[in-house]
User: Fold these one by one.
Assistant:
Number 1:
Amino acid sequence: MTEIRELDVAAVTEAVKGLCITANYDLPVDVYDALRAAQEAEESPVGREVLAQLVENADIAAADRVPICQDTGFAVIFAEVGQDVHLTGGEFEEAVHEGVRQGYGDGYLRKSVAEEPGHARRNTKDNTPAIIHTSIVPGDRVCLTMMAKGGGAENMSSLNMLKPAQGWAGMVDAVVETVSRAGSNPCPPVIIGVGIGGTIEKVTLLAKKALLRDVGSTHPDPRIAAMEDELLEKINALGIGPQGLGGRTTALDVFIEEMPCHIASMPMAVNVQCHAQRHKTVTL
């Protein structure tokens, strides 16, 4: 018989609190290195200068323990909960919300969540509720990933219910058009997550989860890896450049997540992320 491990949700609250702060203060190493590499490769003098400023901004944020960006984002939590874990001491989701509440308070992070968005649009004043995506996985551990998703980049994302006959060519057009239309709004260089398949709600989640991959990583499926390379090349050929001021570095990377879909459908979503690709992970 499998032994069940108990975990007090107070540990979840403390972990989420820490993730909210560190994700907003410390740019992931893979993103930092990608910005440095892009700075060296960028042909536009203005583009090189902008990339240098982005690197300096990340250095200042890490050293002074201040946010990388004033938009400290909507807290999106991906929770992988082991099926052999028994959570005690309270409700799991409330523990996550409390972690966000404490993290955004103690970290002096901007609160950007508005309730009753269709009319009152009142700030909740603690950046809750978080968006929580929970999956049950084997094992007795809880893995929590916090993504701080800013409004400027999220607003430029797209959902495309394509016809199956449009195929890959139609998807390429939709991705490139999404980035082209976004222009400077999402603070390029961007990172692009692409979801293919599933249903209308699943494909947008696939696109967002794709952003959790390390910049510079290669998809294990060579066919999808080639698709990612093609999209990155076409996006960077747009010439939008760093912060929209021109250059070859419009995107740092493109990631695709794919799953089966209905024979009559071709859902495809594009989730745009700014250069401040903020996410951190902890395992309890």
Note: The CA atoms of residues 195 and 205 lie 7 Å apart.
Number 2:
Amino acid sequence: MSNLRVACIQTNSKPDPNINIEEVSSLICEAKSDGAELITTPEVVGMLEPNREKALDKAQAENDHIVLREFRNLSKDLSIWLLIGSISIKLSDSKLANRSFLINPGGQVIARYTKIHMFDVEVNDGSIYRESATYQPGTSACLAKTPWGLVGLTICYDIRFPALYRDLAKAGARIIFIPSAFTEVTGEAHWHVLQRARAIENGCFIVSAAQTGIHEQKRKTFGHSIIIDPWGNVLADANKDVGIIIADLDLKLVNEARNKIPSLSHDRDYSKSFPAF
């Protein structure tokens, strides 16, 4: 299949999973009514809880997870493909996993990806983030088969590691998802240029659903869920509002872009030329 109508849900997640399920489910139904065949949600869509102790207490194991169960049921009821951008999966009393789930129209999980790169940074406004204190990083990239070809799953801070996207593209990914909860500071500085760069470098569609607005403990996320074509053109941008964006993807553009600039086949191992020090 060479054409796909895709949607990004842009939401403002709360600490209460039940509230988030209700709000996001309504937006998913709206996107379905607008003809979306594959619908994506942001990172930490089920619960945005900045307090570590509360996050550990509220999180659930994958087999018992209320958000995963409800969204699987919704996917089946609506007969849609659904990417849960990520939810917090309890691994132990001290660690969670930040994990994406790709669900088919039968409500089956066909791929899962655990965020590899932990957001351990201190940004300009003095905010300090230590994702690794609560979350255990994943160890494997994720490629999944869909009716529209292979897709790659990544999450938020992964976007700053181009080699991951290069490897996904070389393995055949035509669409790469980057569900996010970008901070307002880093989003203002880097969001659009990073998103377009990943699309242009790899000749693929980038689809990135994002969190927006002010959350618990006055945490601010940037919004601007975005859909970009393989030439770097922005097909849709959600700006700051809660809601949905939709775009029609012509997957033939992937081969067109990669034939025009076949850089995926021109890579070299430059490290071999480094002098010994």
Note: DSSP finds six helices and 16 strands in the chain.
Number 3:
Amino acid sequence: MEVAERTRYVRREALRQVLMFGSLFILVVFFSFASPYFFTFQNIISIILATCVNGMLALGVTFVIISGGIDLSIGTVMTLSAVMSGVFITYWGLPVWLGVLGGVGTGVLCGTINGTVVSRMKLPPFIATLGMMMIAKGLSLVISGAVPIYFLNTPSFFQISMGSLLGKIIPGLDVPNAILIFIAATIIAGIVLFRTVLGRYDFAIGSNEEAARLSGLKVDQWKTVIYALCGMFVGMGGVMMASRLNSAQPALGQGYELDAIAAVVIGGTSLSGGEGSVVGTVVGALIMSTLVNGLRILSVPQEWQIVVSGIIVIAAVYMDIVRRRRG
């Protein structure tokens, strides 16, 4: 009986993956016929580059959502991480690598605080991370003085995202480093989720937290680790964003959490916890970026782009509810 159930589950997952890739393929084909400017090398690179930061946030929050939680602070924590990188590099004159570590460390610290508040103080994740969202936004404005921090004297920082290591190896193939970093982060996230103890415990907590606790799992500690891991990916996203803009924009970030969570949900990760995949999250982020890029090329007003994105998110959540009922 268990073997049959497992077989059905694998088939459902395979079908879901095929449907996601099929949806992305249909979008690409549609916009390619709708506009001759869509399916070009430069535009495809632009779509993937636009996916990198949102995709990095989505990778982090995937772990949290699989555990049955939510993190609404990832957008503003990303901004705070970028601001702290600017403080370390521009204001304090520290080496670029220390500034990068400081930005990523800021994300880890905020994630650890989120996890501690959720697991130890027993606050609902929605409330705990909503509070962190406001705290991170306020700190970004206070620390930066509400003005952008520019990396004018550190050209190597700009190269982190917008340089092209691959272009130096293969002349003419100018693929920004941000894409390579995102690919590496995706591989790492996949290994952690499906090949480590942390990943197994993440699924166990999301599937049935009380059962995991009764089986001897230190749920509170692992929840904190999961939120800290999310913070690490968010911190990396903040550094990538600052590098891409060559500045830390303290007013930027709010709203990114919605796009990231939407990408995770579209990718098939259940908001109820216990189900999800890194590949699905990446495909979901690509679907969001492709949709926005295609609508922009077709000169669809931005307000209607937001409406379409909202409809897609609602449809994805509804499909998840229907799928879980059938399961």
Note: Residues 294 and 300 are 9 Å apart (CA to CA).
Number 4:
Amino acid sequence: MNLSDWRVSGDFFLYKSYPIFYRTNEIGGDEILLLLHGFPTSSHDYHKIWDALAGRFSVVAFDMIGYGFSAKPLNFDYTTFNQADVLQALIENLKIKKIHILAHDYGNTIMLELLARAEENRLKFSIETVCFLNGALFPEAHRPILAQKILISPFGFLFGKLISDSLFKRNLASIFGKNTQPTANELNDFLRVFKFNDGRRIAHKLIRYMTEREIFRARWTGALERMSQPFRFINGSADPVSGAHLVKRFRQVVPHQTDIIELPGIGHFPHFEVPDTVLNYFLEFYGKSL
């Protein structure tokens, strides 16, 4: 599904006057599969597996504030805690009581904050199952690319504004697998959604989650260690940011979580690079979790 069709078939809800984009099929009951995207992309990352998932589940995907087709206010405080607040508001607005989660990249950190809030009895819904894709769960195992390092530096506000289209696309392509590179049209879609609503000007604010992962490591890693929900980790091993080295660290930190699927040669976006493979592993996991 192309980016334009994805946008047209979505909807918006207001969070403190900010329009937040989301997409869903017809929700039956109060239980959903929630798809969480990462930086610097959008819910459209899941479009290759959307139809197959929507044929089996009530599915909700949304663009975090500052991302995709959602509002990108200049003066918003783009913390992980505020992103989780937006997500909570959406779920409660849809009157959802149970969620199953498939998360990627920064979406993994949002998920960890939800797990921490669940422990604190701060959610009006339950988290039933959790499936992670590539994403830096531990700051010590995160290997940001050069563009991310520049964005989080004191000069990040300039880099976000001045980064060329070709440099953006080269940096994004660099974290895909060698043999699973995005097409020119797909890279153009990634760029379009990044630039939508003048997204360049806030890119340096969005990436502050990298610092938060260090500050709140104990909170989020603790929630992961204590997680009791059925769990699977699907990881593209060739990802230079959070590939095989992250799996190695994961096994050290959370040794009791052993349901890990490693995909050799696949990069940072497994659901985009090998959608059928990820879909099969996810459906297998979900079937085992019932």
Note: The chain has one domain: 3-289.
